[in-house]
Write a structure and sequence with these properties.
The chain contains 8 helices and 16 strands. With 271 residues, it is of the alpha/beta class. The N terminus is likely disordered.
């Protein structure tokens, strides 16, 4: 009987010890969070039946992928160009329309918006080939088959998400959990057992080590230039001799051991 009580006591003690350790770990650990943003799509199509078909295809894809879309239908290219404010992520653009054809509309839009993904919906390949001049992702021939649409639409979604998806880092600062947008973090500095996240609005001190942040953010546009610094590459303005110049006039040292790898990461980020 005594052994039985000892076993139960041992189990309870082990459970609470594990729970306490886990709680401390969660309190001190930093976590990356991904937030998917609504994708805005514009269907520019003068045939109502075709516009409805494309809308049905988008809804079908949304149900399958659990991605949220906002769909706008415009009947002509002139409606798209008029007062365009880069409000769309993807444009499904019919080429042959009454007032302003899709190719001319795409040329005008591309001068205003370098990032929007353009997919042509056309009746003939002849016009679609010209789409490369406006950096179109591709084209789909009418009558539009779902499989072909899905394959090209999926590529468009991937391209949009690569630019649009927000990445946040969750850190503990003064016993409070903060969610910081990684785009606002210019660089991270090691300071003994802690790190300082230098952000555009303020600096935040949280538990280290710096290596944990390097591993988490290495695939999100950050690179280590020195044993004490991890840099957001989008803030780099110049690299000169043994220094990295960041926007805002901040200068950080770059070590010989890290320079080659840092320059490679910077080149990849620019490309």
């Amino acid at each position: 009987m005594i052994y039985r009580y000892l076993s139960v006591f041992s189990f309870v003690f082990t459970f609470f010890a594990y729970y306490h350790t886990l709680s401390l770990f969660l309190a001190r650990s930093s976590i990356l969070l991904y937030v998917a943003i609504m994708i805005n799509i514009c269907i520019v199509e003068d045939e109502v039946s075709q516009a409805e078909l494309l809308t049905d295809y988008i809804n079908k894809y949304a149900a399958k992928s659990h991605q949220q879309f906002s769909v706008t239908h415009l009947p002509d290219g002139i409606d798209l160009v008029d007062d365009y404010k880069s409000q769309f992520d993807i444009i499904l653009l019919d080429i042959q329309m009454k007032h302003l054809d899709g190719m001319t509309a795409a040329e005008k839009i591309r001068k205003l918006d370098e990032d929007v993904v353009i997919i042509f919906i056309t009746s003939t390949v002849q016009y679609a080939v010209q789409g490369y001049a406006v950096d179109a992702l591709g084209y789909v021939l009418k009558p539009v088959p779902y499989l072909q649409f899905e394959q090209l639409f999926e590529k468009a979604i991937t391209r949009v998400k690569a630019k649009q998806e927000k990445v946040y880092i969750k850190v503990t600062v003064d016993d409070k959990q903060l969610k910081l947008d990684c785009e606002t973090v210019s660089y991270i500095e090691s300071q003994r057992n802690n790190v300082i996240l230098h952000c555009t609005e303020a600096d935040y001190v949280t538990a280290g080590p710096l290596k944990r942040f390097e591993e988490m953010l290495g695939t999100h546009g950050f690179s280590k230039c020195h044993n004490a610094y991890v840099v957001n590459l989008s803030y780099v303005e110049a690299v000169q001799k043994e220094e990295v110049l960041l926007s805002g006039g901040i200068t950080l040292p770059i070590s010989r051991a890290r320079k080659k790898e840092f320059m490679m990461a910077l080149t990849e980020d620019i490309l």
